[in-house]
Design a protein that fits this description.
The complex is a heterodimer of chains A (about 280) and B (about 425). With about 280 residues, chain A is mainly alpha-helical. In chain A, helix 3 packs parallel to helix 7, helix 10 packs antiparallel against helix 13 and helix 12 runs antiparallel to helix 13. The radius of gyration of chain A is 22 Å and the shape is globular. The mean pLDDT of chain A is about 90. Chain B has about 425 residues and is α/β, with parallel strands linked by helices. Chain B has two domains: about 160 residues, D-Maltodextrin-Binding Protein, domain 2 (3-Layer(aba) Sandwich), CATH 3.40.190.10; about 210 residues, 3-Layer(aba) Sandwich (D-Maltodextrin-Binding Protein, domain 2), CATH 3.40.190. In chain B, the strands form three sheets. A five-stranded mixed sheet of chain B has the order 2-1-3-11-6. In chain B, strands 8-9-7-10 form a four-stranded mixed sheet. In chain B, strand 4 and strand 5 form a beta hairpin. The longest helix of chain B is centred in the N-terminal third of the chain and has 20 residues. Chain B is globular, with a radius of gyration of 24 Å. In chain B, about 50% of the residues are buried. Classes of the chains: A mainly alpha (about 280), B alpha/beta (about 425). Chains A and B meet through helix 5 and helix 12 of A and helix 3, helix 11 and helix 18 of B.
Chain lengths: ~280, ~425
């Protein structure tokens, strides 16, 4: 199974990336590492990389911290607790296209709800799509909204397997709730935290649908008029399916794989050390 | 369970699967054709007539948006499977598809070379790849200018369509009218939707846009192109545009709220405006002549991917759908402009008026535009470069760039898109 659905496409993509390969006409010439060499001096690639990292940091850090807090809240005795637990997952089961449509309306430049509210309280409206930072923020909000509940439920499941005796013992020793959270809960769910960090890193670096649909031009857009929020996978899509350059798109795909691998390893080590220390 | 029973069940399941996958539930010998279009072609009704007249052929229509449609086609041609039997190709994608003519059925095989008289010359020859015939013309996008009578009246401008047409013979005049309009209009009302929409209309009136006939990239030294960019860009820089693009939510919202006074409208744009403005917009809009004479923007072709298993039936369908009689019918039902001269000179077409647009004589307006038309030359990479110019005009509207800066950037980014650096 892994060979057919995992390995073969990967290898085929690698093979394509070594060619001047037109989407319609197929391979035109074997060019070796030319596509990769071009990639290294392609400002559009670096622009997309910068955007991806920025949106990834903005969304993942907030998302995981919020999920941790939310899980801690849900872990306390609550009335109708299963209702709340199902509720936090709701944003995740809504189709991402619908989410993008709704947020597109909220963050509209001229007729958006957020701007209407800003004007109501006397602030200047924001050109959400034209300014790089506001666009990253808007896309991140979309991602955070979709994934916080999902991560919270993972944390919650892990928290419930922590034996109650530990909390009782801590309470006897006079630990506050805050101390108990950081000294018992967080270390207790460490494997789950590592798992969510890895998964959201991979998801964050491959971010596509939310920012692509945030562009008013939809799938024909390139992430704003000046590529303000074009992510790596959006750039891959542009090269492959708008410019029909399949070879180059395959090289971008492999670059995404490599970058994901590196970032996952770095994050893994970072979080493991942080959590272990506390 | 005996192994005998099990294997007969398996056989039954397999039979059903095979039947489903070969799609022959319509009885033996039925041919099932897929017809893929984007937006509105007005084919839903026509296809039913075709099926009635051609027992043994069923047609499944597949409609997606403009962009996904062409991306899906390119992918299907590349992988050699999944393409529809009959597919619509828009004119800006056609030059690229002509380069891959081997991926399409040469329609001469079925006698298409005898049909050339049906279309205006340029429409027919655009569907040729060398000697081969790969595309049959459907509609065209004759240009006009839609405007809001009520907003013009409020600004003290003439409202009758002939007077309106007379005041903007050139695009310079149009920009002057924009200035007069803005002097009295409220802050939320803009003269036109976007600089890009104005620019693309102007470009469609030029002989040459981004490419010379030999395919070289001439955007930097093409003076008429730069003039067009400057006029459109200044509209944006002066705040006369709403900064919204057709086919987007924001555009629809702006049209509905009445904050846009004019829209450069190829014939297919009428349906967009009607949908966006809704019933309460009826009678507020009208149609005048487009500045700068006439022009064509948009229009499509039907082609048959070579991977089809039913080339003959597919040809029957494509030939029938693009025939003058059917083009006449789609114009009368949906207002889609025919590309056959015989149709738009038809008295019934000429006398056609559109109630929604203040009873404007759409037949006459668009037929006149079609007659005077000189098509602009479209290079193979048109579809790559055009978005970069649109984006640069958007940067002017956002206040990020001045007009000359934006032009320099558009030329450069267009070059980037061509050569990958």
């Amino acid at each position: 199974m892994f060979v057919v659905f995992g390995l073969l496409p990967l290898l085929y993509t690698a093979w394509v990336s070594l060619h001047d390969w037109d989407l319609i006409d197929g391979p035109r010439a074997f060019t070796g590492v030319d596509n990769y060499a071009q990639l290294l001096s392609d400002w559009r690639f670096y622009n997309a990389l910068g955007n991806t990292v920025s949106i990834f940091l903005l969304s993942t850090v907030v998302q995981l911290l919020a999920a941790l807090g939310l899980a801690a809240l849900l872990n306390r005795p609550l009335r109708a607790s299963s209702w709340w637990r199902a509720g936090v997952l709701l944003p995740n089961v809504v189709s991402v296209v619908a989410v993008a449509l709704v947020f597109g309306q909220l963050f509209g430049d001229t007729s958006g709800t957020v701007n209407a509210v800003l004007e109501l309280i006397g602030l200047d409206p924001v050109d959400w799509h034209s300014d790089r930072w506001s666009a990253h923020l808007a896309v991140s909000v979309m991602v955070i909204w979709r994934w916080t509940g999902y991560n919270a439920l993972l944390y919650l499941a892990a928290m419930q397997s922590i034996p109650q005796e530990r909390y009782d013992a801590a309470a006897l020793d006079g630990a506050s709730r805050w101390q108990a959270f950081w000294l018992i809960t967080v270390p207790g769910i460490r494997p789950t935290i590592l798992f969510t960090v890895v998964i959201s890193t991979i998801g964050g670096l491959q971010l596509f649908t939310e920012p692509q649909l945030f562009d008013p031009l939809g799938t024909s857009g390139t992430g704003g008029t000046d590529r303000q929020f074009q992510t790596l996978v959006m750039y891959l899509y542009e090269r492959g399916f708008t410019e029909y350059d399949a070879g180059y798109a395959a090289a971008v795909a492999w670059a995404v794989v490599a970058i994901s691998g590196i970032v996952v390893l770095v994050n893994f080590g970072l979080v493991r050390r942080m959590v272990a220390r506390s | 369970m005996s192994s005998h029973l099990r294997s007969s069940r398996l056989a039954a399941v397999l039979t059903v699967v095979l039947l489903l996958s070969s799609g022959c539930f319509g009885g033996s010998g039925t041919i099932r054709l897929t017809l893929a279009t984007f937006g509105e072609f007005g084919y839903r009704e026509l296809v039913r007539t075709f099926e009635r007249d051609h027992p043994g052929i069923t047609v499944v229509t597949r409609v997606t948006d403009f962009d996904s449609h062409h991306k899906a086609l390119a992918t299907a041609l590349g992988t050699g499977r999944g393409a529809p039997d009959v597919v619509a190709i828009e004119e800006q994608y056609l030059p690229r598809m002509r380069q891959s003519a081997d991926k399409f059925v040469d329609l001469r095989t079925y006698g298409a070379d005898k049909l050339s008289d049906r279309w205006v010359d340029w429409k027919w020859s655009a569907g040729l790849a060398g000697e081969k015939v790969i595309g049959l013309g459907t509609d065209m996008g004759g240009l006009a200018m839609c405007y809001r009578r009520d907003l013009f009246a409020a600004a003290g401008l003439p409202t009758e369509r002939d007077a309106v047409s007379r005041q903007w013979r050139t695009w310079r005049d149009y920009a002057d009218v924009a200035e007069r309009f803005a002097a009295t209009a409220g802050e939320d009302v803009h003269f036109t939707d976007s600089a890009a929409n104005v620019f693309q209309s102007m470009v469609s009136q030029l002989d040459r846009n981004y490419f010379a006939a030999d395919g070289s990239y001439i955007a930097a030294k093409n003076a008429p192109l730069k003039d067009a960019f400057t006029i459109a860009g200044e509209l944006g820089a002066n705040g006369f545009t709403a900064g919204v693009q057709p086919f987007t939510q924001e555009w629809s919202a702006a049209i509905r709220s009445g904050s846009v006074a004019t829209v450069a409208c190829p014939s297919w744009m009428l349906a967009l405006i009607r949908n966006a403005a809704g019933p309460e917009g009826e009678g507020k809009w009208d149609i005048a002549a487009v500045p700068g004479g006439s022009g064509n923007r948009g229009g499509s072709y039907l082609a048959i991917p070579a991977q089809t298993e039913h080339a003959r039936a597919a040809y029957q369908l494509a030939e029938w759908l693009t025939a003058p009689e059917q083009q006449r019918r789609t114009f009368l039902t949906t207002g889609i402009l025919p590309s056959c001269p015989a149709v738009y000179r038809d008295p019934k077409i000429q006398s056609r008026r559109d109630r929604y647009f203040s009873n404007a004589p759409v037949g006459k307006i668009y037929a006149a535009a079609a007659d005077a038309l000189r098509p602009t030359f479209r290079g193979v990479d048109d579809a790559r470069v055009r978005p970069r110019f649109d984006a640069a005009l958007g940067r002017i509207e956002e206040g990020a760039l001045s007009v000359p800066e934006a032009f320099a950037e558009a030329v450069q980014r267009g070059r980037d898109a061509l050569g990958g650096g």
